Inverse folding.
Protein backbone atom coordinates (compact mmCIF):
# COMPACT_ATOMS: atom_id res chain seq x y z
CA UNK A 1 0.00 0.00 0.00
CA UNK A 2 1.13 3.55 -0.71
CA UNK A 3 1.20 6.40 1.81
CA UNK A 4 1.68 9.94 0.57
CA UNK A 5 4.04 11.47 3.11
CA UNK A 6 4.94 15.11 3.64
CA UNK A 7 5.31 17.45 6.63
CA UNK A 8 1.57 17.14 7.32
CA UNK A 9 1.55 13.35 7.54
CA UNK A 10 1.59 11.56 10.91
CA UNK A 11 2.12 7.80 10.83
CA UNK A 12 1.42 6.12 14.18
CA UNK A 13 2.28 2.55 15.07
CA UNK A 14 1.25 0.12 17.75
CA UNK A 15 4.21 -1.66 19.36
CA UNK A 16 3.55 -5.27 20.40
CA UNK A 17 3.00 -7.64 17.46
CA UNK A 18 3.19 -4.69 15.08
CA UNK A 19 6.86 -3.69 15.15
CA UNK A 20 8.09 -7.00 16.56
CA UNK A 21 6.59 -10.28 17.82
CA UNK A 22 5.50 -10.03 21.46
CA UNK A 23 6.10 -13.76 21.79
CA UNK A 24 9.81 -12.96 21.45
CA UNK A 25 9.52 -10.67 24.47
CA UNK A 26 7.99 -13.52 26.45
CA UNK A 27 10.81 -15.85 25.37
CA UNK A 28 13.37 -13.20 26.33
CA UNK A 29 11.77 -12.81 29.76
CA UNK A 30 11.61 -16.57 30.32
CA UNK A 31 15.31 -16.85 29.47
CA UNK A 32 16.14 -14.12 31.98
CA UNK A 33 14.07 -15.82 34.69
CA UNK A 34 15.53 -19.26 33.94
CA UNK A 35 19.07 -17.89 34.23
CA UNK A 36 18.19 -16.25 37.54
CA UNK A 37 16.68 -19.42 39.02
CA UNK A 38 19.00 -22.12 37.68
CA UNK A 39 22.02 -20.80 35.80
CA UNK A 40 23.59 -24.25 35.36
CA UNK A 41 20.47 -25.81 33.84
CA UNK A 42 18.65 -22.78 32.50
CA UNK A 43 17.99 -24.18 29.02
CA UNK A 44 16.11 -27.17 30.43
CA UNK A 45 14.13 -24.88 32.72
CA UNK A 46 13.36 -22.56 29.80
CA UNK A 47 12.08 -25.56 27.82
CA UNK A 48 9.77 -26.51 30.71
CA UNK A 49 8.51 -22.95 31.06
CA UNK A 50 7.76 -22.46 27.39
CA UNK A 51 6.05 -25.85 27.16
CA UNK A 52 3.83 -24.95 30.10
CA UNK A 53 2.98 -21.64 28.44
CA UNK A 54 2.13 -23.33 25.14
CA UNK A 55 -0.21 -25.66 27.02
CA UNK A 56 -1.91 -22.71 28.77
CA UNK A 57 -0.67 -23.70 32.23
CA UNK A 58 0.47 -21.25 34.91
CA UNK A 59 4.23 -20.89 34.51
CA UNK A 60 4.73 -18.68 37.54
CA UNK A 61 2.85 -21.06 39.85
CA UNK A 62 5.11 -23.89 38.68
CA UNK A 63 8.24 -21.81 39.33
CA UNK A 64 7.02 -20.60 42.72
CA UNK A 65 6.48 -24.18 43.86
CA UNK A 66 9.60 -25.66 42.30
CA UNK A 67 12.04 -22.96 43.38
CA UNK A 68 10.39 -21.58 46.53
CA UNK A 69 10.20 -18.08 45.11
CA UNK A 70 7.46 -15.46 45.44
CA UNK A 71 5.35 -14.90 42.36
CA UNK A 72 5.82 -11.14 42.84
CA UNK A 73 9.57 -11.64 42.35
CA UNK A 74 8.94 -13.52 39.11
CA UNK A 75 6.60 -10.79 37.86
CA UNK A 76 9.24 -8.15 38.57
CA UNK A 77 11.85 -10.18 36.70
CA UNK A 78 9.46 -10.54 33.76
CA UNK A 79 8.54 -6.88 33.57
CA UNK A 80 11.93 -5.35 34.29
CA UNK A 81 14.38 -7.49 32.32
CA UNK A 82 16.24 -5.98 29.39
CA UNK A 83 14.46 -7.51 26.40
CA UNK A 84 16.20 -9.25 23.54
CA UNK A 85 13.84 -8.52 20.65
CA UNK A 86 14.18 -7.60 16.97
CA UNK A 87 12.20 -5.44 14.58
CA UNK A 88 10.15 -7.01 11.85
CA UNK A 89 11.68 -6.78 8.40
CA UNK A 90 10.87 -3.46 6.78
CA UNK A 91 10.24 -1.41 9.94
CA UNK A 92 13.53 0.46 9.91
CA UNK A 93 13.22 1.14 6.20
CA UNK A 94 9.71 2.60 6.46
CA UNK A 95 10.75 4.74 9.44
CA UNK A 96 13.67 6.12 7.43
CA UNK A 97 11.44 6.74 4.42
CA UNK A 98 8.83 8.62 6.47
CA UNK A 99 11.42 10.84 8.13
CA UNK A 100 13.17 11.52 4.81
CA UNK A 101 9.93 13.09 3.57
CA UNK A 102 9.49 15.18 6.75
CA UNK A 103 6.69 12.98 8.04
CA UNK A 104 6.13 12.43 11.75
CA UNK A 105 6.10 9.09 13.59
CA UNK A 106 4.17 8.24 16.75
CA UNK A 107 3.64 5.21 18.97
CA UNK A 108 0.39 4.39 20.77
CA UNK A 109 0.72 1.30 22.97
CA UNK A 110 -0.90 -0.18 26.04
CA UNK A 111 1.23 -1.39 28.92
CA UNK A 112 3.55 -0.30 31.69
CA UNK A 113 5.81 2.65 31.06
CA UNK A 114 9.08 0.99 32.09
CA UNK A 115 8.36 -2.18 30.13
CA UNK A 116 7.24 -0.50 26.91
CA UNK A 117 10.07 2.03 26.94
CA UNK A 118 12.60 -0.77 27.49
CA UNK A 119 11.21 -2.47 24.39
CA UNK A 120 11.53 0.71 22.32
CA UNK A 121 15.09 1.18 23.53
CA UNK A 122 16.03 -2.42 22.73
CA UNK A 123 14.55 -2.08 19.26
CA UNK A 124 16.74 0.98 18.63
CA UNK A 125 14.02 3.23 17.19
CA UNK A 126 13.58 6.01 19.74
CA UNK A 127 15.50 8.48 17.58
CA UNK A 128 12.81 8.18 14.88
CA UNK A 129 9.80 8.70 17.12
CA UNK A 130 8.23 12.13 17.68
CA UNK A 131 5.65 11.11 20.28
CA UNK A 132 5.17 8.03 22.48
CA UNK A 133 1.81 7.40 24.13
CA UNK A 134 1.78 4.62 26.74
CA UNK A 135 -1.45 3.76 28.55
CA UNK A 136 0.06 3.72 32.05
CA UNK A 137 1.48 7.20 31.57
CA UNK A 138 -1.80 8.84 30.56
CA UNK A 139 -4.23 6.73 32.58
CA UNK A 140 -6.32 5.33 29.73
CA UNK A 141 -6.10 2.35 27.39
CA UNK A 142 -7.16 1.66 23.84
CA UNK A 143 -9.78 1.81 22.45
CA UNK A 144 -10.28 5.13 24.28
CA UNK A 145 -9.92 7.98 21.80
CA UNK A 146 -7.99 9.93 24.48
CA UNK A 147 -4.85 7.96 23.64
CA UNK A 148 -5.06 9.04 20.01
CA UNK A 149 -5.99 12.63 20.82
CA UNK A 150 -2.64 12.94 22.62
CA UNK A 151 -1.04 12.32 19.23
CA UNK A 152 -3.26 14.91 17.52
CA UNK A 153 -2.53 17.49 20.22
CA UNK A 154 1.22 16.84 20.06
CA UNK A 155 1.88 16.26 16.37
CA UNK A 156 0.14 18.61 13.96
CA UNK A 157 -0.97 17.12 10.68
CA UNK A 158 -3.74 16.87 8.13
CA UNK A 159 -3.59 13.10 7.68
CA UNK A 160 -3.11 10.48 10.38
CA UNK A 161 -2.46 6.77 9.99
CA UNK A 162 -2.58 4.03 12.63
CA UNK A 163 -0.89 0.72 11.89
CA UNK A 164 -1.59 -2.03 14.42
CA UNK A 165 -2.68 -5.66 14.76
CA UNK A 166 -5.43 -6.20 17.36
CA UNK A 167 -8.98 -5.98 16.02
CA UNK A 168 -10.40 -6.05 19.55
CA UNK A 169 -9.14 -2.59 20.51
CA UNK A 170 -6.71 -1.01 18.05
CA UNK A 171 -8.92 0.56 15.40
CA UNK A 172 -12.04 1.78 17.21
CA UNK A 173 -10.37 4.99 18.40
CA UNK A 174 -8.58 6.05 15.22
CA UNK A 175 -11.60 5.14 13.09
CA UNK A 176 -13.79 7.39 15.24
CA UNK A 177 -11.33 10.26 14.73
CA UNK A 178 -11.22 9.87 10.95
CA UNK A 179 -7.73 8.41 10.80
CA UNK A 180 -6.68 5.90 8.16
CA UNK A 181 -6.34 2.50 9.84
CA UNK A 182 -4.20 -0.41 8.68
CA UNK A 183 -4.04 -3.90 10.23
CA UNK A 184 -0.94 -6.06 10.12
CA UNK A 185 -2.24 -9.60 9.77
CA UNK A 186 -1.26 -12.25 12.31
CA UNK A 187 1.91 -14.09 11.23
CA UNK A 188 1.01 -17.09 13.37
CA UNK A 189 2.93 -15.93 16.44
CA UNK A 190 0.70 -13.15 17.74
CA UNK A 191 -0.17 -13.14 21.44
CA UNK A 192 -3.74 -12.06 20.67
CA UNK A 193 -5.24 -14.60 18.26
CA UNK A 194 -9.00 -14.07 18.54
CA UNK A 195 -9.62 -11.50 15.82
CA UNK A 196 -12.55 -13.58 14.55
CA UNK A 197 -14.54 -12.41 17.59
CA UNK A 198 -14.21 -8.74 16.64
CA UNK A 199 -15.43 -8.32 13.09
CA UNK A 200 -17.92 -5.50 13.74
CA UNK A 201 -17.56 -2.52 11.39
CA UNK A 202 -16.17 -0.26 14.14
CA UNK A 203 -13.42 -2.79 14.89
CA UNK A 204 -12.22 -3.20 11.33
CA UNK A 205 -9.35 -1.31 9.72
CA UNK A 206 -9.67 0.24 6.31
CA UNK A 207 -6.84 -1.89 4.94
CA UNK A 208 -4.97 -5.11 5.75
CA UNK A 209 -1.34 -5.91 5.05
CA UNK A 210 0.71 -9.09 5.50
CA UNK A 211 3.99 -7.28 6.15
CA UNK A 212 5.30 -3.85 7.05
CA UNK A 213 7.35 -4.18 3.85
CA UNK A 214 4.12 -3.65 1.88
CA UNK A 215 4.01 0.00 3.00
CA UNK A 216 5.61 2.43 0.55
CA UNK A 217 5.96 6.19 0.84
CA UNK A 218 5.20 8.33 -2.20
Amino acid sequence: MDIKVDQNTVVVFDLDDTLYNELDYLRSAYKSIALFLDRNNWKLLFAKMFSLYRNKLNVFEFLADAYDVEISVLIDLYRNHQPDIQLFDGVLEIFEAIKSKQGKIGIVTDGRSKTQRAKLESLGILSFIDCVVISEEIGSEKPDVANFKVIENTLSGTEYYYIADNLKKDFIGPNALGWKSVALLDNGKNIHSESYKHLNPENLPQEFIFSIKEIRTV
Summary: Strands lie at 2-3, 9-13, 104-109, 131-134, 159-164, 180-184, 207-209, 216-217.
